[in-house]
Amino acid sequence: MELKVTYPEIGATRTGPLPPGYRHLTRTADLDAPLAEAAEILMTWGLHERCGLRPETTAERAAEGVEVTLRFAGILRIPCQVVWAEATPERAGFGYGSMPGHPERGEAAFLLEAANGRTRFTVRSFSEPGTFAARVGAPVARFLQARATGRFADAMRDACARA
Question: Domain 23-159: what homologous superfamily?
Answer without folding.
Answer: START domain (3.30.530.20)
